[in-house]
Amino acid sequence: MSTGWDRARTIADAVLYEGYLLYPYRASSAKNQSRWQFGVLGPPGAAETALGEDDTLSAQFLIDGDATITLVVRFLHLQRRAVEKRTEDGRYEPVDELTGAGTSWLTWDEAVESELTFGPLDLGDGAQSWTYQVAAPAASAIDEVDGGRLVRSRRAVHGRLTVTAESDHGLWRVTTALHNTTRVADDLACDKDAIIAASMIGTHLIAEVRGGQLVSLLDPPDSAAAAVAECHQHRCFPVLAGPPGDDALLLISPIILYDHPEIAEQSEGALYDSTEIDEILTLRVMTMTDEEKAQARATDPLAAQIIDRCDAMTPEAMQRLHGVLRDPHPGLIPEIPDGVDWWDPIADNAVAPDIDAVLVNGVRVARGSKVRLRPSRRADAQDMFFAGRLATVTSVHETVDGDQQVGVTVDDDPAAELHDWYGRYLYFAPDELEPLKSSLETHTERSSTWQQ
Fold first, then answer.
1. Contacts of range 443-448, beta carbons closer than 8 Å, 24 or more positions apart
2. Domains along the chain?
3. Which domain of life is it from (predicted)?
4. What is the pLDDT of residues 100-156, one digit of tens each?
5. pTM score, two decimals?
6. Cβ pair 251, 243 in contact under 8 A
7. 64, 207, 327, 395: most buried, per Cβ within 10 A?
């Protein structure tokens, strides 16, 4: 196994459950009554009925060298959890909710993880093709609980995985296609519940290569650019899944990702909500009433884990979710000293607009420098009113994106001193300034302006 396998699986798990359960994590919520996820492969014909999705996803990727490939197919398999109440005569009848011994259960569609491994496939023997059957068997189980029982059942799901390899531009072009071949009875072809029960949900593949190197499709070397341009994807995209420098793992994901994706270290667990923002969702969970939390716990074991984790979150863990700046420019944003809040001005002791400088046409420009304004970016139409005017630099700033901005006051503005007093400046990019190199030049420019 590649050293990055655990990392790749963590990302794959996030893909597998992305959108599985949406805040407020209750079955009664309208958006959880019509559930939707990425990477759903419906049974044949489902897309045509508009009640399901396309039955195929396919991807092409490139390998440099005569390698072997192992492919892992992963998806969720829907499992119906029916709640039944025990009657006085010992029979069972379906109910929406069952409560007993301080615990509640709701009728709900859970999911079971399916994972199948194929290979290793040897690319060293020339162009080849492989076909495999993919299957998740039917199953059922009954769990007795206080006052009734939980009846879980899932139908069989079938698929077909095809893999082809051919030489192209001195590389191996590998094509993978996964098809859902599950048949739905004609009388259920227009039943949305039957279609989703026969679907593969959150479907994705992981490819591991040995003896060769995967080629990045996002940042390929020049020698592979032509081959990459000819790769075709359908409902997914392959990205390098290991840590930077590891080119042995590929995640074929229904969600567009960058190479070498990673879970933010500040996140303490999945929230399953599509396009989740940990801090916002955590705060929302904390505002739920005890009754709402009980309903979420009764909906799904994964929802119960979310509620329990948020209830137990420490102030320190919450603070880590807020105000984290990822990949700042070196030296621009300092580490926050211990005991100092992030919003305290002394936390930012490496940025000093009053004394920082920037080079403009080889001239050092800082507070007090004289410049002529040459607006060119049209960010603000009013900037054009200051074209050709003389100004005094008040501050130099740099954004977290590396863009530089210079604050100025216009010299012949009667309120210039007032603007400087309360910090109301005009801001221009360095290339919109023309430095005046000497006080004599500044005096000459001002005299010329007055004579006009």
1. 445/372, 445/390, 446/390, 446/411
2. 5-274 (no CATH), 358-451 (2.30.30)
3. Bacteria
4. 877 889 999 999 999 999 989 998 767 789 999 999 999 999 999 998 999 999 999
5. 0.70
6. no
7. 207
